[in-house]
């Protein structure tokens, strides 16, 4: 009789654990849908902003006629990312989301000249390839049981090295060096897509439910940056110039 009770109790506890696990998985999946939703809206805001800039002769003349404007835009973008990352705990969910979309809009202004440099067909093709690559790597990061955190530090150091190389090549203007930088950029942001996805999934499972809106915003920003950078580096290989 005791053995039966023990077996029954063990089976009951296992069933409870399985139910709790399923509930957690559904909860995490729901938050991840918000992450991808915000990221997609951010990309849409960037695309629409770029289109509006291209439709305005005043905006184009300002971008191309005043080189300092681009540097100011890049500085503002970096400042927004740093500020959002550092202060998000003290912000409301609405404010953090608004800042993310503000970043997306400013980035749309900064990226508008690309549509004048490259043909529309090559941009569309590169976007499709980027979306496919991003989707595959993000799914891999989401479903894999392997802990990718050990690759995180490697990818982060590689990213720092990439930034240094980009800055150095601003002065060197070396075509071969730029090609190597582009190859490294594609590899790094392909890897970061999987790593960031797993990291965001883990944060969704561990963070307080009251923080889920902010987690979704930061997750959207991380994946948005992965997507945009992967697109830009692929465009250097696949893009046909006008």
Describe this structure in words.
- This protein has nine helices and no strands.
- The protein has 242 residues and is mainly α.
- The chain has one domain (31-238).
- Helix 1 (2-54) packs across helix 4.
- The longest helix has 53 residues, at 2-54.
- The termini are far apart.
- The mean pLDDT is 89.
Order of helices and strands: HHHHHHHHH
**How many DSSP-defined strands?**
0
Weakly predicted, low-confidence segments: none
Mean pLDDT: 89
What structural class results from the helix and strand content? mainly alpha
What's the number of helices? Answer: 9
How many strands, what sense, and barrel or not for the largest sheet?
none
User: How far apart lie the N and C ends?
Assistant: 82 Å
Note the overall shape: globular
Q: Radius of gyration over alpha carbons?
A: 22 Å
Helix content: over 70%
Number of domains: 1
Strand content: under 5%
Could you provide a short overview of the structure?
By secondary structure, the chain is mainly α. The protein contains nine helices and no strands.
Helix-strand layout with pairing:
Elements: H1 2-54, H2 57-65, H3 67-87, H4 93-111, H5 114-117, H6 120-143, H7 149-172, H8 175-206, H9 212-238
Keywords:
9 helices, 0% strand, mainly alpha, 242 residues, single chain, globular
